[in-house]
Design brief:
The chain is mainly α. Helix content is about 70%, strand content about 0%. The protein has one domain. The termini are far apart.
């Protein structure tokens, strides 16, 4: 079913390797987030906390609802705007959108502003941001592992 939907909806001009890169980086970031949660949360609450944290990052802070343009321009989000900058799903959505639109370089797309403040030259930055966010989650996890489990060290 998923393969059929993928084949049916895949843009035939899009490069498959760029799509797999975005999916792979999202997977690696989700793994790093789960690793972080496993260190911070008790084992009995891990399933609930992991699901809640994944849904929060993927649905709320992905830049789709609320829209990224609204977050970056509204004064109501000024204090928490940085959360969207450290959200791997937000950068994944942008990278996927840019690679989805790239084969369709019509005059309307070339000369008008893309949706949600996206620009074609931001693709490499989005990929690098996802890599840095993954490294950040891993460094934070390792640091917390060392700090929270000091009593178990002999």
């Amino acid at each position: 079913m998923y393969t059929g939907a993928f084949i049916f909806f895949f843009a035939y001009r899009q490069q498959l390797n760029s799509l797999f890169l975005v999916v792979l980086l999202l997977y690696i970031n989700a793994f790093s987030l789960g690793y972080f949660i496993s260190v911070v949360v008790n084992r009995s609450l891990f399933g609930l906390a992991g699901t809640g944290m994944s849904l929060a990052w993927a649905l709320v802070v992905s830049g789709t609802a609320p829209q990224l343009y609204e977050v970056m321009t509204s004064h109501g989000y000024a204090t928490v705007r940085w959360v969207w900058d450290v959200s791997a799903p937000r950068w994944g959505v942008e990278a996927f959108y840019l690679k989805e639109m790239e084969p369709r370089i019509y005059n309307e797309i070339k000369h008008n502003v893309l949706g949600d403040m996206y620009a074609f030259e931001h693709y490499e930055g989005a990929i690098m941001s996802m890599i840095y966010i993954c490294l950040g989650w891993n460094v934070l996890t390792f640091t917390l592992m060392k700090l929270l489990n000091r009593h178990k060290v002999k």
